[in-house]
Amino acid sequence: MQLPSFARLRLHKKMGSTGVGFQGGFIHPRPEFYKYYFYLFTEDSHEEGEAFFRKENRLCIHEYLKRKAEIYERGDLGWSYNVRLPRRGPATPFDENHHRWKDAEWAPPLEEDPDPPVEGGHR
After folding, report:
1. Distance CA 104, CA 29 (A)
2. 113 contacts: CB under 8 Å, gap ≥ 6
3. Would residue 37 count as lying in a domain?
4. Sorting pLDDT into bands at 50, 70 and 90, what band is 97?
5. What is the distance between the alpha carbons of residues 32 and 13, in angstroms, rounded to a whole number?
6. What is the average per-residue pLDDT within 66-91?
7. CA end-to-end span of the chain, whole Å?
8. What is the C-alpha separation between 39 and 96, in angstroms, rounded?
């Protein structure tokens, strides 16, 4: 994964690149298993590199898709990244007590997630 860089983004814009480049992982088809957060790096971002990946910069999938569409409409350039969190709840296959999940950050069950749903049921 290439870290967000203002210099690299400006270079790509200078070469005529537009749209949103994706640096993240694929989205699991079962929205009740995982919650995805997105990071959208643009020239308007406040930091770059590892510092960019703060919780304050996370977007729910609904907000991410909205902002992504705006970038395309403007003919601008951005890079997106995502993280996935296991969800709590009886509809998931995860055992929260298993050592694999010792330091995991957990998302709420899908039916308790306050974010707006998008096509496919993800929130």
Report:
1. 21
2. 35, 87, 107, 123
3. yes
4. very high
5. 37
6. 96
7. 24
8. 26
Strands (E), the chain: 19-22, 34-41, 59-60, 77-86
29-44 per-position pLDDT tens digit: 999 999 999 999 999 9
Say if 45 falls within a structural domain. yes
* Structural domain that includes position 81: 6-112
**How many independent structural domains does the chain possess?**
1
Tell me, yes or no, whether 22 lies in a domain.
yes
- Domain presence at residue 78: yes
- What residues form DSSP beta bridges with 85? 35
Please say whether the beta carbons of 110 and 92 come within 8 A: no
